[in-house]
Structure formats: C-alpha cells, structure tokens
Amino acid sequence: MKKIILFAAACAMFAACNNTGKTAANANGEDSIADSLQAATADSAIYEGMMPAADTYGIRYHVAIAKDSTNGFDIEEAYMKSENEVDTARYYKGIADVIKSKDGQKTYYSFDTDGTESIKFLIVNDSTLRMVNDQLEEPIAKKGMNYDLKLRK
User: Fold this and answer.
1) What DSSP assignment string belongs to the chain?
2) C-alpha closest to that of 77 among 128, 31, 131, 115
3) Closest CA to 71 of 110, 102, 100, 34
4) Which residues contact 131 (CB under 8 A, 6 or more apart)?
5) What confidence tens digit (pLDDT) does each residue in 57-78 have?
6) Looking at CB atoms within 10 Å, which of 92, 102, 120, 127 has the fewest?
C-alpha cells in the first residue's frame, strides 16, 4: 500500500512539474503518456494482454521491445476497474535482460521496473510471452486464468 501511495505522489509531482507532451488533439489539457509511449515504440515488437489480479478486474500489459540489439523496452501496466476503465497505470522504460535457462532450452526477458523489482516473461514462441515468477517458474494453469501476452505488431 505504501508503494502505491508513494507512486501516486510521485506521479502527481511529475505531472505538476512537467507541462510538456500536450498535443493539439488533446483539447482538455491532459498529458497523453499513452501517445508518447506509442510514438517511442514505433519500431518495436508490441505485446499485449490482460493478467488476472486479486483486487482489481485485471492488469493490462502493453510491452514494447525494440527490434534491434539494444533490447530497449517500454511497458504500460494498467490496473483495471473494469474491462475498459483504468484505475491506476504505471510506465516503465529501460533495457531488458535476456536470460537463458540452465539447459539452454528456454529464453526469458527480465524488465527492471524500479531498481528492486522486475517483471519476467518466458518467450513461448514468436508471438507469445508468458509471465513467470522471480524463479522463472510458469504459473499453474487454472481455468480462466491467462498469463500470456500476444504479439500485436
């Protein structure tokens, strides 16, 4: 809970201090972080999906990974109130670590989100990433629960 409050306060300070990024199409004066995220990821593989969550409708992920050797990434992590209504959104940007399993059969992406935590995905195939835990273990398959992100572009 403290992390959420701290994050919300940081976002409020950032929004108050940063008045750039507004567009003519954004007539109501709100910053369009999603638009800038989309522009920054024009040459990227884009994966999207909704993960189950205990206290919200779900967590929608939009993950963009650079198609070059830099392994740069942009992530939008949106905690959903309903299928279409966002409660809270977080944005991360950085360089993805590529991890190989001990037997060399599996490859994972690790996205550092704040210096102490990371989000990890197994590369299932060319069009699917699957969220895994810190020990690189896949989730136990339960009916109606999907931990996969699908390639959009």
Assistant:
1) -HHHHHHHHHHHHHHHH------TT-TT----HHHHHHHHTTTEEEEEEEE--SSSSEEEEEEEEESSTT-EEEEEEEEESSSS-EEEEEEEEEEPEEEE-TTSS-EEEEEESSSS-EEEEEEEETTEEEEE-TT-PPPPP-TT---EEEE--
2) 131
3) 110
4) 51, 119, 120, 121, 122, 139, 147, 148, 149
5) 999 999 999 988 898 999 999 9
6) 102
Q: Select from 125, 123, 116, 134 the least CA-distant residue to 71.
A: 123
Higher pLDDT, 85 or 17: 85
Residue 13 tokens read as: 């300070």
Contact (CB, 8 A) for 96 and 72 = yes
Q: pTM of the entire structure?
A: 0.70
Q: Is the pLDDT of residue 41 over 90?
A: no
